[in-house]
Amino acid sequence: MTIHSDFKSFLINLQIKEAGQISSRYGSITRRLNMHFRDTESRTSHSLQVGSYGRYTGIDGISDLDMLYIMPSTSWDLYKNDQSGLLDACKEQIRKTYPSTEIKKDRNVVVVRFAKFLIEVVPVFEQVGKKYKYPDTYKDGSWKICDPNAEMKAFKDKNSERNNNLRALARMVRAWRNRNNIEMSGFLIDTLCYRFITDNEGFDKSSYGKYDILVRDFFEFLSNEPVQSFYFAPGSNSKVKVKKNFQSNAETAKEACDNAISTRQEQKESMCTLHYRSVFGNKFPNAITVTKTTTEEFIQDKYTLNLKHRISLDCEIKNDSMTRFLSRLLNAKQKISQERQLKFIANNIDIIGEFKVEWKILNQGKFAEDNHKTRGEILDDDGSKTRNERSKFNGEHLVECYAIQNDVVVAREIIEVPIA
Known about the structure:
- With 420 residues, this protein is of the alpha+beta class.
- Helix content is 36%, strand content 25%.
- It contains 13 helices and 18 strands.
- It has helices at 3-13, 19-38, 51-55, 76-79, 83-97, 148-161, 165-180, 186-198, 211-223, 247-265, 269-280, 326-331, 366-370; strands spanning 47-50, 64-70, 102-106, 109-113, 118-126, 132-136, 142-146, 230-232, 239-241, 304-305, 312-318, 323-325, 341-347, 356-362, 375-380, 386-390, 395-405, 408-419.
- Strands 1, 2, 3, 4, 5, 6 and 7 form a 7-stranded mixed beta sheet that branches. The protein has a 5-stranded mixed beta sheet with strand order 10-18-17-14-15.
- The chain is globular and about 70 Å long.
- The relative contact order is 0.11.
- The model is unreliable at 288-292 (pLDDT under 50).
C-alpha cells in the first residue's frame, strides 16, 4: 500500500460511526427544549453543536459531546438571578423525552448520559457579536461569556486555507492521544494543531501522500513546545488549560514516525505498519487491510451555515389502503413497515425571497452497511420541496433537509425514519 492509501484509509477508519445516532439525539433534545421555551417542534433551530463535534475534529469512539441551547431573550428576567433554576428547567424537559436515561445537573451543564456517549447541554443567552452568556451555579451563581462561533469560524477558515489538512491532522492527533492515554483535551489538540498549521504553509497543497511528513513534523513541533499551563484558543482567545506535559510523549511519537518513514523506504511494509500503530493504534490500516469507503457528504463542506430561519419536516407514509404521517408514528414510538411509499415534505418555512432545497438520505443498520447502501450524498430538490423514497429494509434511517439562500444554509431539519 502507498502512503496515500494508508492515510486515506486511516482517516476513513476514524470517521464517527455513531454520527447518525448523535444527530438524532441532538435533534430530540433540541425539539423538546423548543417545545417548552418556544412552542415549536424544530429539531435544529436555536441549538448549536460545539466542541470537537462542532469543529468536525471528533473521531470514532467520541464520548463527550457539547451542545448550546439558545434561550429566548424573553426568558432572561425569569432566570437572570436563578442559574440553577434554568438548568433544572432544561433537565426536567429533557427527562420527558428520555425518562429512563441518566440526566443530572453539573455546575453549568445538564449531562445526558446515553449508552455510548454523553451530551452536555448548556442553556445560553445570546449577546452582541454572537457571544453567549452561560450559567455558573458555583456559590451564589454567576454568568460567564463564551464565544464558540468565533472559535469555529477561525478553525473552519484555517482549514479551508490549508487544503482541509487542519481537521485531518486534529483527527489523527486524537488517535495518538487515545492510543497512548495522553491527558490532553480535544480543545487543546485543536488549538495546537491550529498553531502548527498556521506556521507551516508548506503543507497548503499537500494531501494524503504527504501526511507521513505532516504528522512527523507536528510531533517534532509538539516536542519542542515550551512547558506552559495554558494556550489561547483561536478566534476567542479564551484560555485552554494544559492538564499534563506532553512533550516527552510527542518526542516518542516523532521517533516512531521517523522509523516508519525509513522502513517504508526499505520496503518493509509490515514494520512500517507496526511503527504507525504504536503511534495511532489499530485504526491505522494493516499493509494488507482493505477498508470500506463511505459515500456520506456533509453540508458544511459545501456551504456556510447560518441557521436563522425555520423549516419543518414530515413524511406521508402510503400503502394501498391508507396514508399516515411519520410525526404521529414517532410520537407513538412506532416504526414504518417495509415496502411503503414515503413522501418527505418540507413546510412551515419562514424564509423571505428565493431559496433552494437540498436533501440527505442516510441509511443505517447492518443491512445497509453490509450491502453498501448507506447513501448519505447531498441531493438536489426537484423544485417541489418534497422527496419521494421507499422503505426497503430495516434500520434507524435519517432524512435531513436544507434550505439554502445565497449559498448559505439558513435552515435545516432532520427526521428519524425507523423501519421495521
